[in-house]
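Hey, I was hoping to borrow your eyes for a little while. I've been puzzling over a protein and I'd love to understand its fold better. The fold is given in discrete form, as structure tokens running alongside the sequence. I'd be grateful if you could look everything over and explain what you see. No rush at all, and the record is pasted right below.
>
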Amino acid sequence: MASRQRHPLVSYQPFKFLFQFSYAVTVIPRLPYYVIVALIPSFRPHPTWSAKQTFMTRLIYPILDVTSRVGITETLTLDKGKQGERFQVVAPSTSDVYQGPLASETIKPATIGGTWFPCAPGADIASKTVVLYFHGGAYVEGDGRDAQCEAIAKKLLKKGGADAVFSLQYRLSGYGGRDPFPAALQDALSGYFFLLNEVHIPARQIVFAGDSAGANLATVLLRYLHAFGGKIGAPTPKCAVLLSPWVAPFAYDMTGNPRRGTDFIPSTYPAWGAHTYADSVPNPTSDPYITLLGNPFPTPVPLFVNAGSAELLLDDITQWADEMRGVEGNVVELHVEEAAVHDTFLVSKILGFEKSAWDVAAKIGEFVRTF
């Protein structure tokens, strides 16, 4: 597979400005069309959608597309910022826990951070149900802080069965060889050991959860625990919640997908993430730590999987859930969110899917409290 580690030309000025300006010039004339489609119910891509849902899904598509084509990964910081004491720095665990696919000559475990919701943990945290949350963003965007994850955490806290949420700020990948696989997975393991050994939360009180790429990350962490948990002294968590999991990162060509007209993800966005994150892996389309689809594995951890009926990844997610169910002993609950796009937990307020996302939160709560 050809490497795409160099930044595209439009990442650099003045080409970046010229590209963004010319792209905006092509989008602005489309806005009246978006408005007409949104206002006339019979024109909407889904019969149950509101005007806001229709307009915003049309608008977000070109915004994501131009961002992906420029391809600049945001810079993370370990400063507390407005999160204050809710933000905690997470040091790597001992080197012996990073084995197999996590033992890299070039990518080493690093100090990262994470944000607590609703507040920094108190003395009673060990008795609480704590969600270790992995944000989405195709491994190239996001930091798990308030702007991205506050609304997600609120749903998990109010309806999703969580007493506290620790949202991990794992390293992001980028062009130029910035933090590719296994950086994010190393960080996910570091975050888990932080909760186990530093915060002293029993594994039976910890729930893995994530959306999109974060759900991919939560799942491959479970795979790692299945393969190496006994060797490194890492027990499995209570259960896992996987929201619109990115099960096949390199299957980003959506030509012919029947839900291409109802979702907001351009193919350039997952392509950006897949190549910067996993181009260094010899066979990423079949590697079980990159591609979930076609690589089921046994796990004692019950899985709640959510997919939108209007999202591009529905068929892949459904197939993967069936594969996981086919492994003896696995417990997998698949919930299909009616008329929903990809990752409503993240985009519900922006795109107008708030009620739908809250309904999913209630389903998550029922699931978490079962185990």
